[in-house]
Design goal:
Blueprint (H helix, E strand, L loop, with lengths): L1 H8 L5 H20 L3 H16 L3 H13 L35 E5 L3 E8 L14 E6 L2 E5 L13 E11 L8 E9 L10 E9 L4 E3 L1 H8 L10 H12 L12 E5 L2 H6 L7 E9 L3 E9 L6 E10 L4 E6 L7 E9 L2 E10 L13 E7 L1
Antiparallel strand pairs: 1-2, 2-3, 3-4, 5-6, 6-7, 7-8, 9-10, 9-16, 10-11, 11-12, 13-14, 14-15, 15-16
């Protein structure tokens, strides 16, 4: 409006003066656009405040509540816990009734610090998948810090229905000076002659810093040594891990302590009505490699018994030789006992039958002891 009034006045002036006034007007107009009038801005603020003051009280309170409820840019959001295999969000709290107390522990675990390792039963509620697998967690201050990945994306296993967690072990499995998690879980298939017999399956989780990964290859290798019906203990798995690594020869054989027997097999155990032979090696090992024990056999049909008592010696490079002078039938010979990764073989060398033994029975042949009771 100011510039328009100036142009009307310029009609009575000379052309040159009019041009000069016009140029001056445009310059002032540009300056006014770059620097707003302070008084005008103040008046606008007053008008806005008056307008707000005229709003109903209820509307003003709603506006204040909306401003207070707006999330702050710096606020922390709860961390979502994702299953490493499936990538889906998992539950953020555990059902206390499903925690396996005897296989849950407070541990100091690598960079995770002081945490609680929790073994967690499948959901047995009506309608739940009967093949749902057991799961495992790390808790910090009773809150879920990490969930170990399932071995299958559908949260089941290839080994049958979950039965129990037999052991949990924390040990370095790959030589990186971090304790990994080794779990022995038991399953039943429910089918076949041994379907109702729980069998142990090992799973190995390696610590990768801020997550664990399931080492399927090493787990399968260890499981390949485990007979279906054998009593597998944590110390056996530790021995197998040492033997499969190939870094150092085995010098401590104490984990073989127990009663070992020859496996009867599917048919003999469940389908053959005829009695089967009993072949047992009882051994006790101390100081790493000092062996003492006995060998016992019983013929299934005749129930004849032979045995070698008071076997003693030192295991060297996985072998023990023991000369016996009586097997209960007057026979003599040498026992060659070989300690394999997860079985003990006994071979009878130079067996001599006593002259008075007319039927020729005694300790002879070889025995593959694959089952520890």
């Amino acid at each position: 409006m100011y510039c328009m009034k100036k142009k009307r006045v310029m009609g009575t002036l000379g052309i040159a003066a009019a041009l000069m006034l016009l140029a001056g007007c445009e310059e002032r107009d540009i300056q006014n656009q770059e620097e707003p009038d302070v008084a005008s801005q103040s008046q606008q603020n007053v008008e806005e405040q008056d307008l707000l003051g005229e709003l109903p009280l209820e509307q003003t309170e709603q506006q204040e509540q909306m401003e207070e409820s707006e999330p702050q840019e710096q606020s922390e959001k709860p961390e979502q816990i994702l299953d490493e295999v499936s990538g889906v969000q998992v539950q953020d709290e555990l059902n206390a009734d499903r925690i396996i107390q005897e296989q849950s522990f407070q541990v100091e675990l690598n960079d995770w610090g002081e945490v609680k390792f929790v073994s967690y039963k499948p959901d047995y509620a009506e309608g739940a998948d009967p093949y749902e697998d057991v799961s495992f967690y790390l808790l910090k201050d009773e809150k879920i810090l990490y969930q170990f990945p399932y071995i299958r994306e559908d949260q089941t296993s290839d080994y049958g229905m979950y039965y129990d967690v037999k052991f949990v072990m924390f040990t370095d499995t790959n030589g990186d000076e971090k304790e990994d998690v080794v779990i022995g879980a038991e399953y039943m298939t429910g089918a076949g002659p041994q379907g109702a017999i729980p069998h142990t399956v090992v799973r190995i989780y390696e610590d990768c810093g801020d997550y664990f990964t399931y080492n399927e290859e090493l787990s399968d290798e260890i499981n390949g040594y485990l007979p279906w019906e054998s009593n597998v203990l944590a110390k056996d798995i530790k021995r197998l891990l040492q033997l499969t690594s190939g870094n150092e020869p085995l010098t401590d054989y104490e984990s073989y302590t127990g009663k070992w027997c020859v496996g009867t097999g599917y048919v003999a155990a469940y389908e053959d009505p005829m009695p089967t032979s009993r072949n047992e090696l009882t051994c006790s090992i101390s100081n790493g490699n000092e062996f003492s024990g006995s060998l016992f056999t019983e013929q299934g049909i005749t129930e004849r018994i032979a045995s070698v008592e008071d076997i003693v010696g030192t295991i060297q490079n996985g072998e023990l030789f023991f000369e016996y002078t009586d097997d209960g039938w007057g026979g003599t010979g040498t026992l060659h006992i070989v300690f394999l990764p997860n079985q003990i073989n006994v071979e009878v060398l130079d067996h001599q039958i006593a002259e008075e033994n007319a039927i020729g029975y005694g300790i002879s042949g070889s025995y593959e002891m694959t089952i520890r009771e």
